[in-house]
């Protein structure tokens, strides 16, 4: 009764409300002000203020029921679509019983698509999702056109009901209505098929997706995991996607497990594993799989050789790298692209052959891009070649003048030579050009193994410290820096201290 009396006084006031007035334990604000509604037509005035009460003060189901009762007592029609819309939305948001929402909904006059969607969503999130289909059919009979939110909610309910036949029917409707190409709808279809055990249909949806976000990947992986690995290994395309996913996430052993269980493997399978092993620091293993690939008479692609050359550059295999580069052209007839030349520059740079790397860049048959010049600049910083570093920086100023990392690298070269005036000049030019250094950050995921993602190259001190931590605490630690993965175990790293 105390709440009811406060509601009454708030709604019937003709003056702006005092912001200190409290409704139960909540502070009321000045949003409930007098309306321009005339005394002869008080209903819109009451509806507006009751909607405001629902929006701002219905923080629990008990408060919502009191506000609802109050609105009825003060003449808000039971069939008012605006009041009903907000009541139903709040009921669903509070995870209240859907029977309450349905009683409100059944009395509404011409509810809009938002209200229909909210009802479908409510059932989809409830313990009994089956009525969502009934609501959808009534929506169609009422000639209310669905929108972009309708089908994701409906497909979620179908997935929860494990009703794949209804899901197929709704899939057909989305095609007819033009909603199938929407990412949210595709994710919902993928999830529905995967949960219902129809892995082939899930794979078809996945393959048809132009854009695949984290939700799509999670749905296909979880779906196949729920339905068992034996069904998974029957589909080479899905296996390839899963293998590539694991490799890119740093779970290289899981990627190898998928590869080992595949009944059929193609160039994509080998390439995904070779690139994955190379990026994760297992270059020698990557080259062994390349040899297996050749023994099976599979012709490597351009991307395969990117992985092979990357493995050589990140493992210090200089001669092997040049040999593979030669074989790529002579034996397989693959013309090198900028990515292949970039690997060769990186190979020379990491080996400390900075002058040879610069000469190699000058003799390239194509114009070097910013990545290649930045690779040289980074090598100059590590190995102390000031003159070549300035040359690389001059080219980068023409290609990407606002890249903060280039300023930092050049500044570090000057600092190593104790040229402090030049260090200040570089830093001043950063300020004048409006360039800000990208702040470093790390994201840590505690588990087995411990995973760390960094946006900068891991430094030598951190690298040494993490090796010791992995040995002392007997933990596997996986770090993803800006260019590769480091797998630390028992005091050693997969990069073999060469990165």
Automatic annotation (TrEMBL):
Coiled coil: none annotated. Residues 446-499 form the DYW domain. The keyword Transport does not apply. Keywords: Repeat. Pfam families: DYW_deaminase, E_motif, PPR, PPR_2. The keyword Repeat applies. PPR repeats lie at residues 112-146, 182-216, 235-265, 266-300. Belongs to the PPR family. PCMP-H subfamily. This is DYW domain-containing protein.
């Amino acid at each position: 009764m105390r709440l009811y009396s406060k509601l009454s006084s708030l709604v019937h006031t003709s003056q702006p409300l005092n912001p200190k007035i409290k409704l139960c334990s909540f502070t009321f604000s000045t949003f409930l002000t007098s309306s321009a509604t005339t005394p002869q037509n008080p209903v819109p005035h009451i509806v507006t203020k009751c909607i405001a009460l629902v929006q701002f003060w219905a923080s629990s189901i008990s408060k919502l029921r009191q506000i609802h009762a109050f609105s009825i007592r003060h003449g808000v029609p039971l069939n008012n679509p605006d009041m009903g819309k907000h009541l139903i939305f709040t009921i669903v948001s509070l995870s209240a019983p859907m029977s309450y929402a349905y009683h409100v909904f059944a009395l509404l006059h011409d509810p809009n698509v938002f209200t229909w969607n909210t009802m479908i969503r409510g059932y989809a999130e409830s313990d009994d999702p089956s009525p969502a289909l009934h609501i959808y059919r009534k929506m169609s009979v009422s000639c209310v056109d669905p929108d972009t939110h309708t089908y994701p909610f409906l497909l979620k309910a179908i997935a929860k009901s494990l009703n794949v036949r209804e899901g197929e029917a709704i899939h057909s409707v989305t095609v007819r209505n033009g909603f199938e190409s929407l990412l949210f709808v595709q994710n919902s279809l993928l999830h529905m098929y995967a949960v219902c055990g129809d892995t082939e249909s899930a794979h078809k949806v996945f393959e048809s997706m132009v854009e695949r976000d984290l939700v799509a990947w999670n749905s296909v992986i979880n779906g196949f995991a729920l339905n068992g690995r034996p069904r998974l290994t029957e589909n080479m395309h899905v296996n390839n996607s899963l293998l590539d996913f694991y490799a890119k996430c740093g779970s290289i052993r899981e990627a190898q497990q998928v590869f080992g269980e595949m009944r059929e493997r193609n160039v994509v399978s080998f390439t995904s594993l070779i690139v994955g092993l190379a990026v994760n620091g297992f270059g020698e293993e990557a080259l062994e799989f390349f040899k297996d690939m050749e023994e099976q008479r599979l012709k490597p692609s351009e991307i395969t050789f990117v992985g092979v050359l990357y493995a050589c550059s990140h493992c210090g295999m200089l001669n092997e790298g040049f040999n593979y580069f030669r074989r790529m052209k002579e034996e397989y007839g693959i013309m090198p692209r900028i990515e292949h030349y970039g690997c060769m520059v990186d190979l020379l740079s990491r080996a400390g052959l900075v002058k040879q790397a610069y000469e190699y860049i000058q003799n390239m048959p194509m114009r070097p891009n910013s990545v290649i010049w930045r690779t040289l600049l980074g090598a100059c910083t590590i190995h102390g070649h000031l003159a070549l570093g300035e040359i690389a920086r001059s080219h980068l100023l023409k290609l990407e003048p606002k890249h903060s990392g280039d300023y930092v690298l050049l500044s570090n070269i000057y600092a190593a030579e104790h040229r402090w005036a030049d260090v200040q000049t570089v830093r001043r030019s950063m300020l004048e050009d409006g360039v800000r250094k990208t702040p470093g950050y790390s994201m840590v995921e505690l588990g087995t193994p411990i995973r760390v993602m960094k946006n900068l190259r891991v430094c030598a001190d951190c690298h040494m410290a993490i090796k010791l931590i992995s040995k002392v605490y007997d933990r596997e630690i996986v770090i993803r820096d800006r260019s590769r993965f480091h797998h630390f175990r028992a005091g050693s790293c997969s990069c073999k201290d060469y990165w």
